[in-house]
Amino acid sequence: MKRIVKDPTTRRAEILEAAGELFRNQGYVHTTVDAIIQKVGVAKGTFYYYFKSKEEILEAFVHSMVDTLCEEYKKIAADSTLPVMEKVRQMLRSQSYHLDKQAEWMESLHRPENRELHERLNIAIILKIAPVLAQVIEQGNKEAVFHVENTLETVQFLLAGSQFLLESGIFHWEKEEQTKRLQAMQMIIERSLGAAPGSFSFL
Amino acid sequence: MKRIVKDPTTRRAEILEAAGELFRNQGYVHTTVDAIIQKVGVAKGTFYYYFKSKEEILEAFVHSMVDTLCEEYKKIAADSTLPVMEKVRQMLRSQSYHLDKQAEWMESLHRPENRELHERLNIAIILKIAPVLAQVIEQGNKEAVFHVENTLETVQFLLAGSQFLLESGIFHWEKEEQTKRLQAMQMIIERSLGAAPGSFSFL
Question: Which Pfam families match (chains A, B) (predicted)?
């Protein structure tokens, strides 16, 4: 039998992808390291060369999910040709695109078996995405489009509220209730950032 | 052996209290219905007369936790002699008192074995406490101390942000970081409610 040798980056990505599929299909709680190993078709030692435990692969997987979005945000934030509100709009568009692509995931994130995965994903978003958004808000402060102190902390609070109340799926809001919550959020964002009324009406 | 017959309300409260102690000491995940039955010293049938399952007793327990605070809030909200900012202050004081009394609980809520209990507690707070706070904010609107539409939804968003970012214990903020987050929250609350700058500086 020929042993297939793959370069470490490819191998690691393969293991992460297999783990992700199992988390999505049967939930993090019900996924074992053995099942991941079997799915990728590698030796136990190969798995443990990359990840020490199930917790470690969960952490790595969550970060890989957030990093894709984060990289795009960073590109948008760094583009010196764009005015600040255009950056905000592009970031939201890019987020919707990600959410659509991961519609199947969203469903799975709301299952009790993925409660821990979901919580870690929310934490990673607060810790990794908020600083990039804060950088854009700072540009807005300089352009006098926004007027806000404690930028990072403000962005984190707004992200936390929107994730927990509107996107967590733990509240089963009726359509009309969700609409009113979105209106409230638009107002809270505009006022918190010291932005002009209506400037976030595209939300 | 003499059978002790207790009235249903007492019995139900006893079972709830025993369940709560077990949830706190060993976590919801590791608590069995049998352990609850044994702790209270009742027959299986007695337990199932009050609660259909472990999930049902969790739900009842969470509501009993929130209801105590909710009742006090309702009393404060209904007191027609108090100006609106005094009501807000009294509510916050009453909340701190509860948190202090339940310091042991707070610790336990952050354990992974109580992740589900904590999530349900957060949900109950959003659904039961927010309407009472919204009633007070409405009074503030009438007195022109606040200026906010979609009152209930705004309160829910602010509660969600503060619970998830500041009180969930899932972020381990350093003291200075926590201070900056509190400052940001004060500003977000004041601006969102259309309150005078500094009016929430007692936070």
Answer: TetR_C_39 (PF21303), TetR_N (PF00440)
pLDDT in tens, B118-151: 889 999 999 999 999 999 999 999 999 999 999 9
CA proximity to A126, closest of B115, B172, B189 = B172
pLDDT digits (tens, 9 = 90+) for B2-49: 566 778 889 999 999 999 999 999 999 999 999 999 999 999 999 999
Amino acid at B83: P
Q: Which CATH number fits domain B54-193: 3.40.50.1980, 1.10.357.10, 2.30.30.30, 1.10.3470.10?
A: 1.10.357.10
**Least CA distance to A161: which residue of chain B?**
B161
Substitution target from B148, B152, B165, B173 for chain A, most A beta carbons within 10 A: B165
Q: Do B153 and A184 touch (CB under 8 A)?
A: yes
Search chain B and give the residue with CA nearest A184: B154
Tell me the pLDDT tens digit for each residue of B143-161.
Answer: 999 999 999 999 999 999 9
* A8-50 placed in CATH 1.10.10.60: yes
Q: Does B173 touch chain A (CB under 8 A)?
A: no
Hey, is B83 helix, strand or coil? coil
> Is any Cβ of chain A less than 8 angstroms from the Cβ of B147?
no
Rounded Cα–Cα distance for residues A178 and A167 (Å)? 10
